[in-house]
Amino acid sequence: xxxxxxxxxxxxxxxxxxxxxxxxxxxxxxxxxxxxxxxxxxxxxxxxxxxxxxxxxxxxxxxxxxxxxxxxxxxxxxxxxxxxxxxxxxxxxxxxxxxxxxxxxxxxxxxxxxxxxxxxx
Length: 121
Known about the structure:
Layout: H1 3-11, E1 16-23, E2 29-34, H2 41-61, E3 71-74, E4 78-84, E5 92-99, H3 105-118
Antiparallel strand pairs: 1-2, 1-5, 3-4, 4-5
């Protein structure tokens, strides 16, 4: 599945606000869908790059041989999921924002994992 198709599938998940595929080394988005006046996905992607970088550095400093499955940021009205792509050769992650009132977090995490598994970058 290509990037565009993967982003479309993510946006079909109940409660989806926006999704982006981001390179955490550069902070640049390789593609995004959704967002709007209340969520600038370019700004959010760049900002969340720092979150992923910090966690990767922390794991290295702790000498933990662990992979990050996802990072969850819970806001009063939204969930933000950061999911590093395990199979990518680079430093890519999916950034996914959900409306808490409409989303099923467990199902969204499951669907994002499925999409990651078939995404070809």
